[in-house]
Write a structure and sequence with these properties.
The protein is built from 14 helices and four strands. It has 475 residues and is mainly α. A hairpin with a 6-residue loop joins strand 3 (314-319) and strand 4.
């Protein structure tokens, strides 16, 4: 009422002036409320990403440790990557979240240098792990014969040692030696110890970003393009091979024909002596291939017939339970079960059986090899698909940050970026450490089953499953 009377006493004025007068007298509660809400939302996002990175990567480590099926060479890199991502969450995300939420640095200049060093170190190690995984998959798929010789335990240990060693030369060494920043920024830090800003010079920005991101990214993209091309080539080759095997295969099919449908090369063997388990082969002409019958195989070289037409379809039944008997007959049988006049097989049963067994064994071996190759192909390319998704997620998370990082250092002060944008870019990159376990869980069935089993066993009501699966899974 008093405010309204004061406004009326001032007489007529413009409406905007009156509104400004009214708003200027209101208490500043609304901005503080929005600031509090934004802090709560930021805190929830930070906590979610940090806990997701810690728990998800811990789940990866425990699952590989508990399940023997996951203990393959590639997963050595995965476990080491999970350790790096956990340390990113512990040593980098926590300090960054504190600075973002309080708008000040609470831990002094020494801890600021340690924090910046750990941030660069573990983030670079995480990225280099992904590079090693892409190289491992390249050898497994593009050079499978070299893979067991090249990717030995010694090679893996050497690569992992370098992954953990090299980031130190772009983090701890230049930061503690003061090589990473400018003289102006060093003076600013002395005057304001409550500020922790990672201000770099152009030379350090180019070198560190090349080692941490640009070179590994080029390697990953190159490896994955080669893997993708090889996957297409192998799929086409596997399709052609399976078609050839199908067109020239022997399908050994156990049947139970009655005894009078068999004709013997040995006259002393009675029909009642024939085992019900025997395999039937159908001779087709040299240009024919018959599907749907018992056999698709040319037998002219095994049991040549003197009188049979080269286009005649001939059945040869071999007892698979007993050795030494082979029977042949025309498809046009008489009702009495006797072979038609003029049919005189000219090979002995022993030779026929040996040749048939040899041919069947060879083609069955080819079929088994083809199935094994197909199974191995599917497993390797499933891993390659997961790798492709991981590489894609990595680029989406880290590319915006490194583009900003290089651009601002090359451009200088004209390209200064608001602190809000910088914070968003940092946390998008951090989110990659929490994203990798989710990718494994969604796209890799072995990891998904292992995660499910591990989570069930973590519940008190399922404690007994540790006894069932845990002991048996350890080496």
């Amino acid at each position: 009422g008093a405010l309204r009377g004061e406004v009326e006493a001032r007489g007529r004025g413009t409406e905007p002036a009156l509104l400004h007068e009214l708003h200027s007298t209101l208490p500043p509660a609304a901005p503080e409320t929005w600031h509090t809400i934004s802090l709560i939302l930021k805190g929830l996002v930070f906590i979610t990403i940090i806990l997701g990175a810690l728990l998800g990567n811990a789940l990866v480590i425990i699952s590989v440790h508990r399940h023997r099926k996951l203990r393959v060479i590639t997963n050595y890199y995965v476990v080491s990557l999970a350790v790096a991502d956990m340390l990113v969450a512990l040593c980098a995300m926590t300090f960054n979240a504190s600075a973002e939420l309080t708008d000040t640095w609470l831990f002094g200049p020494l801890v600021c240098d340690i924090f910046n060093s750990l941030d660069v170190y573990f983030s670079s190690a995480s990225i280099l792990h992904l590079c090693c995984i892409s190289v491992d998959r390249y050898y497994a798929i593009v050079r499978p014969l070299e893979y067991p010789v090249t990717m030995t335990h010694r090679t893996v240990c050497f690569m992992l040692a370098n992954v953990w060693l090299w980031p130190a030369f772009i983090s701890f060494v230049p930061i503690f030696m003061g090589w990473y920043t400018t003289e102006q920024h060093r003076q600013l830090r002395k005057a304001h110890p409550d500020v922790c800003i990672f201000k770099t010079n152009m030379i350090y920005a180019l070198i560190s970003s090349s080692v941490s991101f640009w070179i590994p990214s080029i390697v990953m993209i190159s490896m994955y393009c080669k893997i993708f091309r090889e996957a297409i080539r192998q799929r086409e080759a596997l399709t052609r091979t399976s078609s050839n095997i199908l067109l020239n295969s022997v399908h050994m099919k156990h049947t139970s024909h009655s005894a009078h449908h068999s004709h013997y090369l040995h006259p002393d063997r009675r029909p009642s002596d024939i085992s019900p388990n025997y395999s039937t082969f159908t001779e087709v002409g040299p240009e024919e291939t018959e599907f749907g019958g018992e056999v698709v195989m040319a037998l002219g070289d095994i049991c040549p017939s003197k009188e049979a037409s080269p286009r005649k379809s001939v059945n040869i039944s071999c007892d698979t339970a007993s050795s030494g008997y082979c029977s042949g007959g025309s498809n046009k049988r008489s009702s009495s079960g006797q072979p038609p006049p003029g049919w005189r097989p000219s090979c002995t049963s022993a030779v026929a059986n040996r040749e048939l067994a040899k041919a069947a064994t060879e083609l069955n071996s080819q079929g088994a090899s083809l199935r094994a190759a197909g199974k191995s192909w599917r497993a390797e390319h499933k891993a390659a698909r997961t790798l492709g998704i991981i590489v894609g997620a990595f680029l989406l998370c880290w590319l915006p940050f490194f583009l900003w990082y290089v651009t601002t250092n090359v451009c200088g002060e004209p390209c200064d970026t608001p602190s809000v944008v910088v914070g968003v870019l940092f946390w998008i990159g951090y989110f990659n450490s929490a994203l990798n376990p989710l990718i494994y869980a969604y796209f890799n069935r072995d990891f998904r089953d292992a995660f499910k089993n591990t989570l069930m066993c973590a519940l008190p009501c399922c404690f007994s499953c540790w006894k069932d699966t845990g002991t048996a899974s350890f080496v």
